[in-house]
Amino acid sequence: LMATCIEKIDAVFSDDYVASDSSDTLTGCHDEAEAELGTMINLIWVMVCTVLVFFMQVGFALLEVGSVQAKNAKSILIKNLLDAGVGSLAWWAFGYGLAYGPNSNKICGGGFFFFSDA
Predict the structure, then answer these.
(1) Whole-number Å distance between alpha carbons of 27 and 5
(2) What pLDDT is attached to residue 21?
(3) Is 115 exposed, middle or buried (CB count within 10 Å of its CB: 0-12, 13-18, 19+)?
């Protein structure tokens, strides 16, 4: 997409460019670039939220370890590690499909389970 727009811009600024009366050379590049920017902003936001959720897991682990005896700290940390692992697998299996799958109804998605066809 961006390469096509850059080629069009280079063509406009070349020495042998002749403007056509029918249409502008850069038509459509702005809309495509704006859509791509929106997609990138959404992707960055999802990644930031993912990092926040994992920091929340660390906070829960610290809270739980601080409220038990020292001899039980290792088992609490292992429980929190398994909790994060099982949660990640559950998101891979079902969460992505429910959040971003094709809308079969107005509440949640209905496809892309186990990242199939994604």
Answers:
(1) 9
(2) 46
(3) exposed
How many other C-beta atoms are found inside a 10 Å radius of the C-beta of residue 45? 10
Give me the amino acid identity at 66: G
DSSP sequence for 64-79: HHHTS-GGGHHHHHHH
Instruction: List, in sequence order, every residue forming a beta bridge with 109; answer none if it has no partner.
Output: 103
Q: What is the full per-residue pLDDT of the chain (118 aa) written as tens digits?
A: 556 666 766 666 665 655 554 455 555 666 677 777 888 898 899 899 989 999 999 999 999 999 999 999 999 999 999 999 999 999 989 988 888 888 878 888 888 888 787 5
Task: Write the CB contacts of 98 (distance below 8 Å, at least 6 apart in sequence).
Answer: 108, 109
Please tell me whether residue 105 adopts helix, strand or coil conformation. Answer: coil
Question: Nearest to residue 90, comparing CAs of 78, 80, 82?
Answer: 82
Angstrom distance (rounded) from CA 16 to CA 2: 22
CA–CA distance, 34 with 2 (Å, rounded to integer): 11
One-letter identity of residue 69: Q
